[in-house]
Amino acid sequence: MEILIQIAGWMGMIMVVLAYYLISHEKINGSHKHYQILNLLGAIGIGISVYEQRAWPAFALQIVWGIITVASMVKNKESKEE
């Protein structure tokens, strides 16, 4: 089980870094759904890892990161529907 938690953490880190790379190099913009999905899945993966380690500040950061991402996704979806 520990190896799966480590894999989740590493995959989450890769997704967050990839999202940052894509936006920094203007491959996508901040409202692009791929950027938001990478951030959300990254936060979940890292969150699993830091929760298991009981790293509460890092876990709280991942919760906030995820909430911001979901709020952005909802906002982007609503603006496209108008």
Task: Describe the overall structure.
- This protein has 82 residues and is mostly helical.
- The protein has 3 helices and no strands.
- Helix 1 runs antiparallel to helix 2.
- It is globular and about 45 Å long.
- It starts with a helix and ends with a helix.
Count the helices. How many? 3
Mass-distribution shape = globular
Total DSSP E strands: 0
Strand content: under 5%
State the end-to-end CA separation: 45 Å
Mean pLDDT: 94
If you compute it from the alpha carbons, what radius of gyration comes out, rounded to the nearest whole angstrom?
A: 14 Å
Can you give the helix content as a percent range?
A: over 70%
Q: Catalogue the unreliable spans.
A: none
Main beta-sheet strand count, sense and barrel state: none
Main structural class: mainly alpha
SSE pattern, N- to C-terminal: HHH
Q: Which descriptors apply to this entry?
A:
82 residues; 3 helices; globular; mainly alpha
Concise overview:
With 82 residues, the chain is mainly α. Helices cover 84% and strands 0% of the residues.
Topology:
Elements: H1 2-24, H2 33-52, H3 56-81
Helix pairs in contact: 1-2, 2-3
